[in-house]
Amino acid sequence: MIRVVLPHHLNTLAGVEGEIVLLVEGEVTQESVLDALEARYPMLRGTIRDHATRRRRPLVRFFACNEDVTHEPANAPLAEPVASGAEPFLVVGAIAGG
Amino acid sequence: MTAIRVLVGTKKGAFILTSDGARSDWNVSGPCFAGWEIYHMKGSPADPDRIYASQTSAWFGQVIQRSSDGGRTWEQPGSMDQAASGPQDPDGTPSMPQGESNKFVYDTSDETGKPLTTHQWYDGTQHPWEFARVWHLEPSLTDPDTAYAGVEDAALFQTTDGGESWDEIAGLRGHASGPAWQPGAGGMCLHSILLHPDDTKRMYVAISAAGAFRTDDGGASWKPINNGLHSQYIPDPTAETGHCVHRLAMHPATPDTLYMQKHWDVMRSDDAGENWTEVSGNLPSDFGFPIDVHAHEPETIFVVPIKSDSEHFPPEGKLRVYRSRTGGNEWEPLTDGLPQKDCYVNVLRDAMSVDRLDPCGIYFGTTGGQVYGSADGGDSWAPIVRDLPSVLSVEVQTIE
């Protein structure tokens, strides 16, 4: 099981509080985690990755195990502690705006 | 019992203001979608409990929200939890689109007219069309599940399933002038959508900074309707396109008569946009954003003059709505109840609306967070609420 932490606004959209726990089939990567997240919560489609291009939205970042993994390849395996559920995969909104 | 519902979109959420027909005591509810920009909310003329909202964010993109109970509860249409027990096809898959309500993808198919893939960018180069947000939602006059969306970068989309999915009406971007369209300072947005009350094939739209367009065939083809506009800020001031139209308005009883607040100039057409004449008359400034028409008097129109394109606040620090009872040219300032000194707010293009009661009520919101209302056709005004976030849009529903 994979643990995912969303920013406040996406928790609100998805109607969840706290961490989300997901079952991810196959290799645990950014892409497979986000695919599972969007399958479980379709209202999040387009909010993390652009609907058309599937690219990460510019002001969204991904952290795991105290590392910024935003620019790692989307299909690269995430660290073992994330894959095992020991550590969460964090979706973070950039600190910006007024 | 008659009720008024004012739908207010702000930079930090949505608010709903309600009153009875007297329009003197108001209830303010909200914020809904707190922290998000609500560019526009509008109710269906066919079912006032059906309301669509455009929820946007620079972080998380576009979200379409829908209410079926007059704004008490909201949902992203078609995006219910997969685990929830919803209607399903025999094979077990959900019978409605999942997570498609926020999907606005430009149509580039050959079958629908080969719409253009680029437009002019600020530096004169060609730039890909990139979806940013929905500026304006226009529900169908007859079907609560059908609505149009005007978006940035400028295009027109339609839903026929209550917002669960959206398809581009691609003929507009397919117009040959498309490569010359370019964004205004606020982005290249399609902000005005007027539906003809009798002819379902006819529709008017306006784009900053491309101009006004009309379709007579349900959106398959479009004609620029900018003859008579004069814009000194473009190389050819009378060009077919390139004009920064800020807002269009129409009275349903006279659908061939259109009113326009342009970047500069207030304009009028009496032939469905074929030709325009300036009706700025004695306005202290003919720069501004909103324009609207009295609910019962097709020749009575309202604008809010703004000092200039460089100084987006009222002339002399006096917030004045100007009313013309002659369809333009002769204007009178409406000041009773509005601040007449030290006022430096703006009123954005979608932030004025009228109700259908008699006397007609007029409402507008400011970038300072005030929403003002008049229950007597503009003769006197009072703030309904003073301290909301910056107001992006105001729409009114008359519930009878």
Description:
- Chain A is α+β, with helices and mostly antiparallel strands.
- Chain A has one domain: Roll (Ubiquitin-like (UB roll)), CATH 3.10.20.
- Chain A is about 25% helix and about 20% strand.
- A 5-stranded mixed β-sheet of chain A has the order 2-1-5-3-4.
- The longest helix of chain A is centred in the middle third of the chain and has 11 residues, at about 30-40.
- With about 400 residues, chain B is mostly beta strands.
- Helix content of chain B is about 0%, strand content about 35%.
- Chain B contains no helices and 29 strands.
- In chain B, the strands form 8 sheets. A 4-stranded antiparallel β-sheet of chain B has the order 3-2-1-29, with no helix packed on it. A 4-stranded antiparallel β-sheet of chain B has the order 9-10-11-12, with no helix packed on it. In chain B, strands 13-14-15-16 form a 4-stranded antiparallel β-sheet, with no helix packed on it.
- Chain B is globular.
- Mean pLDDT of chain B is about 95; it is low at about 80-95.
- The interface of A and B includes residues 13, 46, 48 and 94 of A.
Biggest sheet record of chain A? 5 strands, mixed
For the secondary structure, the number of strands of chain A is 5
Portion in beta strands of chain B: 35-45%
Strand order of the largest sheet of chain B: 3-2-1-29
Kindly, what is the distance between the CA atoms of the first and last residues of chain A, rounded to a whole number of angstroms? 37 Å
What is the number of beta strands of chain B?
29
**Count of discrete structural domains of chain B:** 1
CATH class of chain B: Mainly Beta
What coarse outline of chain A follows from CA principal-axis ratios?
A: globular
- Specify the CATH architecture of chain B: 7 Propeller
How would a crystallographer describe the biggest sheet of chain B?
4 strands, antiparallel
The low-confidence parts of chain A are: none
Radius of gyration of chain B: 20 Å
Strand order in the sheet with the most strands of chain A: 2-1-5-3-4
**Shape of chain B from CA axes?**
globular
The H-and-E topology of chain A, N to C, reads as EHEHEEHE
**CATH fold naming of chain B:** Methylamine Dehydrogenase, Chain H
The multimeric state of the shown protein is: heterodimer
Give average pLDDT of chain A, whole number.
Answer: 94
